[in-house]
Amino acid sequence: MLKKFSNIVSTRLGFTAFLVLLFWLKSLFAYFFKFDLDFDNSFQILLAILNPLASTLLLLGLALYVKNTKLYYSLSLVIYFILTLWLFSNATYFGEFTDFITVNTMLASSKVAAGLGQSALNLFNFTDLFFVIDFLIIGLLMWRKVIRFDHRAFSKRAGFAITSLSILAFTVNLFMAEIDRPELLSRGFSNTYVVRYLGLVPFTVYDGINTYKTNQVRKEAKPTDVAEVQKYVSDNHAKPNPDTFGIAKGKNVIYIHLESFQQFLINYKLKAIDPTTKQEKEYEVTPFLNSLFGSKETFAFDNFFHQVKAGKTSDAETLMENSFFGLTQGSFFVSNGGKNTFQSAPDILSQVGGYTSAVFHGNVGSFWNRNETYKRLGYNYFFDQTYFNVDKSNSFQYGLHDKFLFGDSIEYLEHLQQPFYTKFITVSNHYPYVKFAGDEGGFPLATTSDDTINGYFATANYLDTAVKEFFDYLKASDVYKNSVIVLYGDHYGISNSRNPQLAELLGKNKETWSSYDDAMLQRVPYMIVVPGMDKGRVDHTFGGEIDNLPTLLHLLGIDNSKYPQLGQDLLSPDHRSLLAMRNTDNWVSSTLTNYSGRIYKTGTGEEITNPDPDTKKQIDANNKQSELQLKISDAITTGDLLRFWPSDGLKPIDPNDYNYTKGLQKAKVIEKKLGDASTSIFSQNGDKTTKDLWQTQSFQALHPELNLSQAGTSGSSAKK
Known about the structure:
The protein is α/β, with parallel strands linked by helices. The protein has 2 domains: 2-218, no CATH class; 227-687 and 696-702, 3-Layer(aba) Sandwich (Alkaline Phosphatase, subunit A). The chain is built from 27 helices and 16 strands. The protein starts with a helix and ends in an 18-residue tail after the last helix. Mean pLDDT is 92; it is low at 109-120 and 710-716. It is a multi-pass membrane protein.
């Protein structure tokens, strides 16, 4: 057996194959024991098992083109050493930062040194010997002559065949990855996704290409380019409404991100059969959000549109907190978020109002590159999936379910210094809207021919209940009265291709469904709850996510005129009722709608095929204004123009000042240092936790009249 093995590895092809095998085993060790690739199904596991082979064979196979014996073996071992070093470095880096080393990370050498140099020894354990033990094995086999040098040169034709085989294998791998995750590379969901589907080496190449493209555009930008942005901001600034300016000054800001939540769900009642009476009845889908929407404490907008594209949720975050758009292709967070300069909401409020900022999200921190982008935005804390005990009982493929997210975030929220600026990113109302099982099941499904539509109402109802429970906690802990709560839908939940199947549920005919109907379904809820206020109303102003930040800052008493924001205060008398969508030919105004190449009268949906001169003039003006706003936004994002923005009192952000590990310990240290001056919820509650004020019940516990099954309650996921 040993002799047969020796004969194989003593050929150049056999030696290369042996190195490929060893590195494949080390890669699998890293995948399953060092990285958290967050597998959702067995197909993803299969791809992860296979994906190291193609790239490893391609790189090690390059040495086969070398004729000189010593040079071949030296080059093979050098390539193998570099691959191993890269794998081990990423394993160590991931242990500290729960992400992979990117080109930008390497370029920021001080950050790499901080990330690896200071923590490598602490993170090293005996299992890491697996990364280096093979070098001893190879050396021993060579010393014992089990591996003998093969002096025969490998033919170029055979070498080309090996290269072709590896490229073919990678192509098949990429095709299989696209089956499970369409637009994997074009949308750039997450570094973790690329490694999970394609491998560490392809991820590095992919990241390098994207970084090069981004840097080339950035290099071409000049300080003088910012003048056009300044002019646009000045020309389009909407002065604050004196009746609402500063009414929320100094209050906590709490964002509640309503995943995939569309405006039509507000006040919607789903007709379904009552399981007890067997008669048809109406089920209110979102009773709590409905109550907020009509409250005198709420500024609610029923003509508020999402403006995202491929970056979806991350685009919504870009718009809401920066007041400019995402990109025409891919995610701005992924391609530019880790390197661009920002003047974002958390940074402005930190430097102007002394706010502490934090994000709570039950998915992996690297999804949409949040763990890097948030540092650039100025977020002090990011409580991602690593801060919660996540398992199959309380989560699904997009992270921790909403009730667990809200309830288990209290442990971290209560130690933040007030005023705070926080964001809760929910996920339960996410495609494919799979119905809840067990004691959370029971809300009726719709009965269309599309299962995605059918489940949408039940998951929205779950989200509604989760939000109500969080509001109950805010009131019980006395946080509510000193906060302003912003609730927004990030993007559509039902895609345009499915809208005709949705038509009947909305009282429309799918045969007469038009692009105008599609346009109106891009509306999402936008509510600003200001406790104690009695000026609330349902506002019919047309606006979009780009308008949030100017609106919020004015409510907080902060003039936004000196900041690079492209939106306008929705409450301002000067607000322009025209919103551009990320597609350059789509826009909506209070009178006209341009969608999918057709012009309609807003309100009636009547198509305009032969516009009169006045209408044509208005269409041209709207086209020009929308194109200009998108052009200015693209200049900001692709050219990183905010690095040239004139001083407006904000100090530049250094991302190296932020580390999202050990967030709770950090908050407690600050709390202890401040002593009696601490303003945290915990301190104001007499140094006692408020977690016991959180109350949660399952759907079946809330609806015993349905007699669905024995009711239950939810548990906890917070890591202690």
